[in-house]
UniProtKB/TrEMBL annotation:
Entries under InterPro entries matching the protein: FTHF_cligase-like_sf, LUD_dom, NagB/RpiA_transferase-like, NTF2-like_dom_sf, SnoaL-like
Identification of the protein by name: SnoaL-like domain-containing protein
Organism: Kitasatospora cheerisanensis KCTC 2395
Annotated stretches, region: Disordered: 139-173
Bias (Basic and acidic residues): 153-173
Residue ranges constituting the LUD domain according to the UniProt record: 175-329
Entry-linked Pfam families: LUD_dom, SnoaL_4
SnoaL-like domain residues: 6-127
Length: 365
């Protein structure tokens, strides 16, 4: 191979890398797919995704694109080693993104590439994405038009954006990932259509003889479960009994009832796609039962509470759930709420069976 040919090949491969990023930025999935050989593979283990052939790459790219509020990708060429009609190389990536399910931030990554010379020029035979650094700190800026309307540049814009993000139901793929991850960690998981289905399912799961504790939850209130589980059908229901007891003279009895029911039913602030359940509390009254005191735990979780990871769960708590809960407690008790206890369940507790009812519907906050 002549020196001129080697230079020409290197320039063409760098142009191929740049074409990939340009197709991504222009959201031209057909053009992006055409940059791969007929058996070309795109692997992104961190998602995880493995797409083979131009058609899969095009369709997979479209699914990813649907999740973006915005996405910016920069490519910096790395080393290239040419061996006849094949070559290997790397491209260094810097990306900034915000997705519809609440994930945002920036990252640095490397594409490890294999290239093949074809009659149409150099093409990707394989691209493997390696994430090197991820920062999920909320972004300070926004894409033009992301918050369209008269208040586009007002001081209220970030709060409005956060509210919309935290109330939108997660995509079906996110629910599936969360369900699979929870099941892998030992939780019983059911994906249900809506609150009515959850209400019926809880009626099946809780026996009339059970001492059932339904702790305070907007999800339970809105679904009707709060009322159901205080009904005469459940003569050993905990909350109605506690409400008749004196908090000063019968404090020990209240503590025992709340801490060791047969079944505790409620909701949580977030469930992650990695299989964690996040529960926050101001009083701590529901924690003894949920962390092992109850024989069974049942959580009803609206689709808007499914988030990518723990940082996103904590942002959801701080930006959305806590302000709304504070509004409720201010109106009811004259004081704001607080996150005085925070529990992350990465698996059920040793002596409790935990069931997560994931809804495709948004409910609660």
């Amino acid at each position: 191979m002549t020196t001129f040919q080697a230079i020409a090949d290197r320039v063409e491969i760098q142009a191929l890398q740049a074409e990939f990023t340009d197709a991504v930025m222009m959201r031209d999935r057909a053009r992006l797919a055409a940059l791969f050989t007929a058996d070309g593979v795109l692997r992104m283990p961190n998602i995880p995704i493995e797409l083979t052939g131009p058609e899969q790459i095009r369709l997979g790219g479209e699914k990813l694109q649907e999740q973006w509020v915005f996405f910016v990708q920069n490519t910096h060429p790395g080393a290239i080693a040419i061996d006849g009609d094949t070559a290997t190389g790397r491209a260094h990536m810097h990306e900034i993104a915000r997705t519809r399910n609440g994930l945002e931030g920036l990252n640095y990554a490397i594409y490890h590439d294999t290239y093949r010379r074809t009659p149409d020029g150099w093409r990707f035979a394989e691209r493997v994405y390696e994430l090197r650094y991820l920062d999920t700190t909320p972004l300070g800026g926004s894409a033009p038009g992301e918050n369209a309307g008269p208040a586009e540049h007002s001081a209220e814009q970030p709060a409005e954006r956060h509210t919309e993000r935290h109330t939108e139901p997660a995509a079906a793929e996110s629910l599936e990932r969360a369900a699979e991850a929870l099941a892998a960690r030992g939780f019983a998981v059911e994906v249900l259509a809506d609150a009515a289905a959850a209400r019926a399912r809880v009626g099946e799961l809780v026996d009339e003889k059970d001492a059932v504790y339904a702790y305070s939850s907007e999800t339970l209130r809105l679904s009707g479960l709060d009322e159901d589980l205080a009904d005469d059908r459940y003569p050993r229901a905990v909350k109605p009994r506690v409400l008749t007891m004196d908090r000063e003279t019968e404090a020990d009895g209240i503590r025992q009832l709340l801490g060791t029911p047969d079944v505790v039913v409620g909701s949580v602030v977030a469930v992650t796609e990695t299989g964690s359940v996040v529960l926050a509390s101001g009083s701590g009254s529901q924690l003894p039962a949920t962390t092992g005191g109850a024989a069974r735990v049942i959580w009803i979780v609206g689709a808007q509470k499914v988030v990518p990871d723990l940082p996103a769960a904590l942002r959801r708590l701080e930006e959305h759930a806590l302000p709304l809960e504070s509004e409720r407690t201010e109106a009811a008790y004259g004081v704001p709420s607080a996150v005085n206890q925070l529990v992350v369940f990465n698996a059920p507790t040793r002596f409790s069976r935990a069931t997560v009812l994931l809804l495709r519907q948004a409910i609660g906050y």
